[in-house]
């Protein structure tokens, strides 16, 4: 049986989709009926399209064949400094693990620093299973819970590589500090080229990030409870249309409620929205977050039935959410599934961890953005053999609207654009640890 109720296509309905581009009419009335091209598609929903490419974990790091053995002694100790939201911290930690192995250093478990928007910090053990991590990485890298007494009292020498650009060489620029100070903390470079790592360092990163990081028992239990409350099968949707997200994009939107406009203005600061040709060019490059009603339109175009249970992997600050829920009414959130007491006790890291847990275990995953969480979720789903993963194309939608497409024509354009992405497995995993597999 096809996922989410088979080849059932959308019932006739009218969807008002906010115009994406400055200067276009306020509303595009989009009529989706049984006679539109996407609803008559014989393949049913997007998930029934036959893929010809998938990304799967590369055998070379899973088998460990021909990899350099872990040296008996190390050059010192490295702690990875992790900042931001949980998924950003996880990304930096994964990068730091590869760096530590590259430099033949012993890894000190990190402390996740406070996120500015959560005002929360936590130890590694507050999120992840320490024993499991150490066991899974024992043949790849030396890991310690605590520093030896002779350096326990000292602070690490801090090496901030986060702003480095170009072909940054950790061996040349960081190893001398490690050898001199024995204990350093490092913030990985955002633009590093991991493809230049030797295989043993790449394998360490891959093993640690995709095989060794699992939520601790407490968070795992909460995630399992939340997962059990979701109707099956279900779609996890990572929708990004929060005030700070919209403000940061510098995109202009027409037809928003006054409450949404006020929230965006409050988060905008000195980032004023682009206007004129710059705004049009910016949007057509796919830089503007999809509104919830635009997201609903694309889901309909992909023949995702309106009765599909959807887990909204997002915070409670999504603007204009009724644009989605007026079409897809079976939308669930953490706050709707959990008791008020349980939800109130959760910090930001816990909420992010639960969204991640549900998303890597959902029957399908769709994201409207390609941020840190989406990259991690897509890769973990690929590692687990779950390939119903798709990133909605903001660019394709904006270009279609700019060309004057609406209704069935726009729906067909969305189907074709996303069908091609799904067939080819585009954006579904991280190439460093995953290999393209022809089906």
From TrEMBL:
<keyword id="KW-0808">Transferase</keyword>
<keyword id="KW-1133">Transmembrane helix</keyword>
<dbReference type="GO" id="GO:0006004">
    <property type="term" value="P:fucose metabolic process"/>
</dbReference>
<dbReference type="GO" id="GO:0005737">
    <property type="term" value="C:cytoplasm"/>
</dbReference>
<dbReference type="InterPro" id="IPR024709">
    <property type="entry name" value="FucosylTrfase_pln"/>
</dbReference>
<keyword id="KW-0732">Signal</keyword>
<keyword id="KW-0472">Membrane</keyword>
<comment type="similarity">
    <text>Belongs to the glycosyltransferase GT106 family.</text>
</comment>
<keyword id="KW-0325">Glycoprotein</keyword>
<feature type="signal peptide">
    <location>
        <begin position="1"/>
        <end position="33"/>
    </location>
</feature>
<comment type="pathway">
    <text>Glycan metabolism.</text>
</comment>
<keyword id="KW-0294">Fucose metabolism</keyword>
<protein>
    <recommendedName>
        <fullName>O-fucosyltransferase family protein</fullName>
    </recommendedName>
</protein>
<keyword id="KW-0328">Glycosyltransferase</keyword>
<keyword id="KW-0119">Carbohydrate metabolism</keyword>
<dbReference type="GO" id="GO:0016757">
    <property type="term" value="F:glycosyltransferase activity"/>
</dbReference>
<dbReference type="InterPro" id="IPR019378">
    <property type="entry name" value="GDP-Fuc_O-FucTrfase"/>
</dbReference>
<dbReference type="GO" id="GO:0016020">
    <property type="term" value="C:membrane"/>
</dbReference>
<dbReference type="Pfam" id="PF10250">
    <property type="entry name" value="O-FucT"/>
</dbReference>
<keyword id="KW-0735">Signal-anchor</keyword>
<keyword id="KW-0812">Transmembrane</keyword>
